[in-house]
Amino acid sequence: MTNKAIGISNVTLQDYVNFDETKMEEAYSFEQYSIRYFGATAGYGGSLSNNLKTVLSTTDDARYYKFYEVDPNYGEGRISYQVTPNAAPSVGEMYITRAECYARLGKKDLAIADLNTLREKRLKNYTPLQSADFSSDKDLIKFCLEERRRETFQSHLRLFDVKRMNLEPDFATTLVKEFQGETYKAEPNSGKLVLPIPAQVMKFNPSWEG
């Protein structure tokens, strides 16, 4: 499936590093298999978590410095996609998905090749990954998951990725948030990732599972 998706001719992996910074909306759109148009003036903003900053280079990664900007009107920053957010996987996500599949199948060289194809179009002064950079298949899979986070941090997929990762002890993730001097944690499979369905609603829908 990923091979066929990557082979579609009217969507191609874009070079974010060298793409005209004033036309990044076009670069983003060229990589989407499907986009939605919102005829509205509303928007959304957000800030990077401290944890995300440990895996995302704010100086070399074009996914950060060409899409994310400090805006005093919106707090720390905002991501500019204007009116065409993605409604399906992107070409970049397909490369990462295939790389993860290769890594899980023990096809290390193919996984690294896909990662390099993507990363050379995302990072300035990029040094290609080598097989020697990973001591085990597990390390390579972990890197694929981190790269997926870097590629999709702005697309609201993190919840689904964390839930999937929590199915495997090797990649299970505890989310931590500091707020007003308090520390809040959402441990794997703790039920804290999403708000529960209210008891009153469950009462009137007894066939639903808790």
From TrEMBL:
One Pfam match: SusD_RagB
Any one cellular-component term (Gene Ontology): cell outer membrane
Entry keyword set: Cell outer membrane, Membrane, Signal
Cellular compartment(s): Cell outer membrane
Superkingdom of the organism of origin: Bacteria
Recorded family membership: Belongs to the SusD family.
Full protein name: RagB/SusD domain-containing protein
